[in-house]
Amino acid sequence: MKQSLKKIDKKDACPECLRPIEQCFCSTVIPAHTSLRVLILQHPQEQYKLLNSARLAHAALDNSVMRVGLSWRNFAHALGEEANPKEWGVLYLKSGGETDKPVEFFDSKKRKAERAPRLKGLIAIDGSWKQAKALWWRNPWLLRLNRISLNMQKQSLRPQMKSEGLSTIEALACALDVLGEKHSVGELLVRQYADLVIQPSALYRPTGTPNGPVVVTKE
Fold first, then answer.
1. Rounded CA gap, 173 and 187, in Å?
2. Cα-atom radius of gyration of the chain, to the nearest Å?
3. For 54-99, how does the pLDDT look when each residue is reduced to its tens digit (9 = 90+)?
4. Which phi-psi region, left, alpha or beta, contains residue 212 (left: φ > 0; alpha: ψ -120 to 50)?
5. How crowded is residue 63: how many other Cβ atoms within 10 Å of its Cβ?
6. Domain ranges in the chain?
7. Is 149 within 8 Å of 94 (Cβ atoms)?
8. Which run of H or E residues covers position 5?
9. Residue 5 · residue 200 · CB < 8 Å
10. Phi then psi for 131, rounded to 5 degrees?
C-alpha cells in the first residue's frame, strides 16, 4: 500500500533544521555568502512540510534572516533592524501566462524597470500560493518595496500543483543570480535542495508507520 506524505511528524524532527532526525542537515549544509541580505518570511503552517526549502535556504545563506509568523508591524520589525525599504526587493511569483519574460522588475509604485535595480536586500515569502497571498495582504509594508516578478519556465525539483511554481530556495537562487551574485551561489542552493531535501524525503517514514512505497504529495 502506498503512503502519501506531505508533513514531517514533529516528534521525528530535528529541533534546529526541522528535518527528520536521520536526515538532519545541520552539520552537512554548505554555506554561501552573498552581498545582498536575504529575509525569509515563512507561514507557520510551512515549517514541517516534507519538501519545504526555507530553513535550508536560511542555513545555506550566511547573510540571511528567517522569520516565522503571519504579520509584522513594519519592515524594521520583520528584519530586526532599521533599513530603507526602497533599497530592498520582494519576490513575487506570477500565476503564469502574463509574459514570456522569466524576470521583470517594478518599483514600489508598480512602474516597470527595464533592468535590475541596485538593491541591498531581498525578501522571499515562503508558503503555498494561498498562504503567500495571505502574508502579502497581512503585511501592507511589503508594498513599499521594489518587486521582482518571477515567471519561470524551468521545472521545479519539487512536485507542483502549478507548473510555473518554484520552491523558495529555487526562487532565491534565480533572483540572486539575476541581481548579480555569483552564479555558483544559486547552483549550490539548488544542488543542496536536491541532495538534502528532495532525495532523502522519499525515504522518510513517520515513526510507527509500516514500510512501503512513498508518494510525496504536491504542494
1. 7
2. 17
3. 999 999 999 999 999 999 999 999 999 999 999 999 998 665 545 5
4. left
5. 13
6. 3-10+33-216
7. yes
8. strand 3-5
9. no
10. -65, -40
